Amino acid sequence: MEYEATRKFAAAMDAEDELRKFRNEFNFPRAKGGEDCIYLCGNSLGLQPKRAAQFVREELEDWATLGVEAHFHARRPWLPYHRQATPGLAKLCGALPAEVIGMNTLTVNLHLMMTSFYRPTAKRYRILIESSAFPSDRFAVQSQLRLHGFDPATGLVEWHPRAGGSELHTGDLEKLLADNGDSIALLLLPGVQYYSGQVLDMPAICRIAKRAGCVVGFDLAHAIGNVPLDLHDWAPDFAAWCSYKYLNSGPGAIGGAFVHSRHLDDAGTPKLLGWWGHDEATRFAMANSFTPAPGAELWQLSNPPILSYAPMIASLQIFEEAGMKRLRKKSLLLTGYLDFLLQQRFAGQVASVTPQDARGCQLSLQVIDKTVAARAVFESLERHNVMADWREPNVIRVAPVPLYNGYNDVFEFCERLQAALHG
Domain boundary at 289, 321, 353, which? Predict the structure, then answer.
């Protein structure tokens, strides 16, 4: 693609965009002072699909008119409600329908998965994470180590970037496992690193972990709905995600989990059990004996929160219409255009630390001009109605999301970044 640093070029690209109609499917925050809002924060909270209100309203109407009978007779019956999401989640994950389940929230699901798949021994008990892991993942792993009687000071192994950089190198992970693999029980790694925006080589990680005899799980919070996934063929043991970022399901929305098919019929895999993990056909017999539900549904504990689930169903419908292949193609063009404009207009002032050959929607920007305070630039962007987000100590994360962002958003962001750099 031959980019041009002009608004005319951005407008022409938007006019030719085969996905441009989906922008109208979302509600954008109100502008301040007459200047349009440039929303580049879908990596933190996706925009609200307009359909979400309709789907929630329909559940409220069915509750009002049917009461408890809505479990069986609502437009989307509540008893099997989670299956409304199964096809869409399976497609986004590259998984079999039996391998995915929408439930709980991300950290809850990570704990449920680690209950099943972190089975330490006296020799092989350590857990490997990346050194800049999202705090909730670090806290979850530390607590799992303590729960099993191990000290995180010795039980936690960290995969570090090389000195002076932020990129994680798969070769370094391979060496780390070669040196320590016989003591490592579990790798818990992100699909996309939240701070740098780097897309990790998930299939290679699965191969390396398997050779070392380690269980591998992925936190897909920043990956699902962002980059193509092929979990069934890559074959991690498990994965978990939230849905309020690229899946546009709303703050605190229901999350999800993946369990590879090789584990689904393994009665020896330990699990925390709940009523909704009981087979649906006999669940309401209220028996004291447990009959497992099929597939990943077995990991459910409780009935799904319908009002929280409904926006995700609406968003997955839009993903089905747009198609992940087309979304990924546009995403690469959008981030390529942003990278081009940064190099054309802000050389020596602002640079992306996200690897060019391993990125999703997000670019993590650093202000490298030492005469300008990075935090002040971010605050000035806010005053110019740019919604991005700040991560300590010095990164401004921006994410042009292909479902609702366009090339003019990218161009206009750079216009306002220019203004922000000058106060």
Answer: 321
